[in-house]
Amino acid sequence: MTDELIFYTNPMSRGRIVRWMLEEIGQPYRTELLDYPTAMKAPAYLSINPMGKVPAIRHGETVVTEGAAICAYLADAFPQAGLAPPPGDRLRGPYYRWMFFAAGPLEAALSNTALGFVVPEGRERMMGYGRLADTLNALEGAVSQGAYIAGDSFSAADVYVGSHIGFGMQFGTLEKRPAFERYWDRLSKRPAAVRAKEIDDALMPRQP
């Protein structure tokens, strides 16, 4: 099938973000489940993503890696799902802004903090996020301005930003501010989000 949509993932990965996005677009897709030590580092998958990481998708002959890029691509590839402001719409500004804010400053700030790295005083300009507090305050302002991150409609940016907030609060890397809890509670109840979670939870390895 020329335009077959293939999803490369592991349920213990950021692939959960893309699973949710795929469930939102409502198109058929095939899942290739990869384990960390072998399949992700095998030549067959390294030809898809030389980083040896998931998620990735193949749509026909097009390969896309990086969660934010995949969400943005799928929203544009399947416009009938209504998951992105149309090209030329001014709402593309906040849509891109906050999606890539989560992919850049937010993820870097949370990852560094989880690893115990603190930006030395006076060296904030070297970091794309500056300070963790500034990053979280900016995010709080973004999710407090309305029901969704870019205007009055749910979009792929909400999938990506919301996932980071949900995972961050679940694993204790993001403080549970009321604005974050309200935003995530609203998004996590979407039918596609519930379906995606159920699918990935069922794929989790069984605990002995």
Read across the widest sheet, the strand sequence of neighbours is 2-1-3-4
Straight-line N-to-C gap = 40 Å
Please tally the β strands and state the result.
Answer: 4
Q: What percent of residues are in strands?
A: 5-15%
Low-confidence runs of at least 5 consecutive residues: none
Could you tell me the mean pLDDT? Answer: 96
Number of helices: 8
Question: Structural class, judged by helices and strands?
Answer: alpha+beta
Taken from the alpha-carbon principal axes, the silhouette is globular
Determine the fraction of residues in helical runs and give it as a percent range: 40-55%
Main sheet properties? 4 strands, mixed
Please state the CA-atom Rg, rounded to the nearest Å.
17 Å
SSE series = EHEHEEHHHHHH
What do you see in this structure?
- By secondary structure, the chain is α+β, with helices and mostly antiparallel strands.
- The protein contains 8 helices and 4 strands; from the N terminus they run E-H-E-H-E-E-H-H-H-H-H-H.
- The chain has helices at residues 15-25, 43-46, 67-77, 92-114, 132-144, 156-171, 178-188, 191-203, and strands at 5-9, 30-33, 56-59, 62-65.
- Strands 2-1-3-4 form a 4-stranded mixed beta sheet, with helices on one face.
- Helix 1 (15-25) links the parallel strand 1 and strand 2.
- It starts with a strand and ends in a 5-residue tail after the last helix.
- The model has no long low-confidence stretch (mean pLDDT 96).
